[in-house]
């Protein structure tokens, strides 16, 4: 475990990773030929933070139904914050029914009915329900504009600087809604890491039934690619066919984004080839397990003098298959750690650098709550600091 301090490092360890800078495409294995059909493509290994492939990752484009990932994330956050209750029911307004019933992808909400948050999330994330998104937005925030304001606020919190959302469902809105592959990868990562239970609950259902109508999940890799368990497809004539997907094998998770493909069949082939390439042509060395102590930081004004830090997911170093390299790791602290500290609060970043300069990073969080010190603890800590 790394010691406390503003910047701590350890000597190189034998592992495997080499390539270009993390912000650009690695000079690694040749990607699948089918990927030529995706004008926009990005793949990230979440365990190491390494970008395995990047093409036009910061180019803004219309996300279509990929917008619904932001809708879901906003609802997940509202549930955690207590501003939305799991048992809350959302009324289907007459005007919403008339405008959205059967319009594009739909869960076929019934006029005059009310629908629970759980069912709406299932409809939105399993069958891409446009009508369900509008019902959710109106019920959660009072109106669609009020809800999209919340979506944009959450996007800013995540640092999604190339994104703006004008609708909760991605219906064409003359370009007011846009995003980038990098922002979508950031969003997918936040969903998976901040809301793991909700991710498992809402993204992996093979089908969804509402109003006696059963529809299958449109995810092109689930059920056919080992470890695939989410996230979302999108399509409009203007945006083409897009997909944000993820799979996990042996504790190693990959997130990929593709955009602008010409057809649903092309998207399916590209997605399957791309995710397979990420697992088959790259290998990962585990550095730390999930929640395994990585570092320890000194606390100011805490009931205890230090707190341990860990990652919420296993930490890996990723490299092209059969290509080992030396790796340096270091911890960069975000600043002085002051009590009280909340469990899961981000305190530092683990920096990973290979011998040829590939850099990646993984957030480190506090492993437990630490309260502010009382007068006795402050006196004791002060005394210990004099003799230690």
TrEMBL record:
Keyword Ribosomal protein: no
Pfam families: PBP5_C, Peptidase_S11
Binding positions for substrate per the UniProt entry: 232
Biological-process GO terms, alphabetical: cell wall organization; peptidoglycan biosynthetic process; proteolysis; regulation of cell shape
Reaction equation(s) it catalyzes: Preferential cleavage: (Ac)2-L-Lys-D-Ala-|-D-Ala. Also transpeptidation of peptidyl-alanyl moieties that are N-acyl substituents of D-alanine
Gene Ontology MF terms: serine-type D-Ala-D-Ala carboxypeptidase activity
Domain Peptidase S11 D-Ala-D-Ala carboxypeptidase A C-terminal: 282-372
Active site: 65, 68, 128
Record bears the keyword Nucleus: no
Pathway membership, UniProt: Cell wall biogenesis; peptidoglycan biosynthesis
Family of this protein: Belongs to the peptidase S11 family.
Function statement: Removes C-terminal D-alanyl residues from sugar-peptide cell wall precursors.
Protein name (record): serine-type D-Ala-D-Ala carboxypeptidase
Organism of derivation: Croceicoccus ponticola
